[in-house]
Amino acid sequence: MSTLTLKGPYWVVVRQHRRVLWAVPALLAVGLVVVVALRVGLGDPDSDGMHRSASQDQAWGMLRVFMEYAGNTLLFLPLLVGAFVAGPMVARELESGTWRLALTQSTTAKAWLGSKVLLAAAVSVLGSVALIGVYRLGWVTVSGTWQLHWADRGPYEATGPVLLGYCVLGVALGALIGQLVRRTLAAMAVTGFLTGLVLLVLGALRWLFLPVVTRTAPYPGNPGPLLPGSALMMDTGYLNSAGERLSENACFNPRDPAADCPADLNITARYLDFHPASHSWPTQLIETSILLALAATVLYAAFRLVRRRHP
User: Fold this and answer.
1) Which of 16, 94, 102, 147 has an alpha carbon 20 to 30 Å from 287's alpha carbon atom?
2) Are 109 and 309 in contact, with CB atoms under 8 Å apart?
3) Is there a single domain that holds both residue 53 and residue 148?
4) What is the pLDDT of residues 129-181, one digit of tens each?
């Protein structure tokens, strides 16, 4: 990012954090080189795995492990973004008093905070888009394997716009918490904790956004074959003659695990609830909308706070 086209507080923010700004494209370049190198070593991704050479098998295994770790690492990106905004960008200047220098340069407190928020959000969004592209380039080859299903933690966040939403929320929380706490390390810890808490809560609730698809099979049939290979199974169990659902363990007999269900349960069918792969993008968009709404609310509070403390 060139500082020649930026003026006022924006130029100052870029100059202050230029090392971090240069680190972003450097990390992207490293990730892209690794993914491309492993895909080149893999050869044709559509070829039958049974006819791959030993070197192709090794490249495929390395790519799968790399993508698994990369997805888990990207889960922490919003926490790092929020902690950086809260600590080095906002709280450190308030703690040391250097923000007062900015206010002597014909800059308002609102512009001081706005420059930090805007540049942090822009870099976070552009960086996230690039990371998603790099991740998908490698993930598409190994998707569906262990820990790399589209609904797994890590791949879900790293392959869609929800990662952008979490990063923008991290920026917003950092701008607010940095002003409230005014201590660099404490602000970083609190912001990281709150961002991670939102990630955990929405991660637990996201599969409630859309209704599940249900398929049934007559008892003692098995609905498993009716489950698409790419689907996310949510629940399975039994249905009795009254249409009531019973858990999968309702018929379990520890003395005879292979025994049929007791007759007094009146089991007539088995059911299976799942989310098809087509629910991935709608769920991503709903979750991203929630995150952006939260971020807008937090940013509103952050700017109200800076105007009240530094009119």
Assistant:
1) 147
2) yes
3) yes
4) 999 999 999 898 888 888 899 999 999 999 999 999 999 999 999 999 999 99
